[in-house]
Amino acid sequence: MVGAIDVATNSIETPEEVAATLRKALQFVDADKLYPCTNCGMAPLSRSVARGKLHALTAGAEIVRNELLG
């Protein structure tokens, strides 16, 4: 698991930022073993911020998935 989302801030990551984090992690782990996630629980965040962060996580993972599949 790699924490591609920082829950200590209300700033919402872009999908490109998430993808960059995932690409770095792929230097150390095979793609089929990589699980993108947050770096901790999201309970302290507002619902709108949490949704935005989860959307960025999904979109960033999709960017990298498409790169890997060619």
Strand fraction: 5-15%
Q: What's the alpha carbon Rg, rounded to whole Å?
A: 12 Å
The major beta sheet can be summarized as:
2 strands, parallel
* Fraction of helical residues: 40-55%
What is the CA-CA span between the terminal residues? 23 Å
Structural class: mainly alpha
**What is the element string, with H for helices and E for strands?**
EHEH
Q: Number of DSSP strands?
A: 2
What topology, given as strand order, has the largest sheet? Answer: 1-2
Mean pLDDT: 97
Give the count of helical stretches: 2
Q: Outline the low-pLDDT stretches.
A: none
Overall shape: it is globular
Q: Describe it for me?
A:
There is one protein chain. Helices cover 49% and strands 10% of the residues. The chain is mostly helical and 70 residues long. Strand 1 (2-5), helix 1 and strand 2 (36-38) form a beta-alpha-beta unit. The model has no long low-confidence stretch (mean pLDDT 97).
Question: Which properties best describe this structure?
Answer:
70 residues; globular; 2 helices; mainly alpha; single chain; two-stranded parallel ribbon
What are the SSEs and their pairings?
Layout: E1 2-5, H1 15-25, E2 36-38, H2 47-69
Parallel strand pairs: 1-2
In short:
Helices cover 49% and strands 10% of the residues. By secondary structure, the protein is mainly alpha-helical.
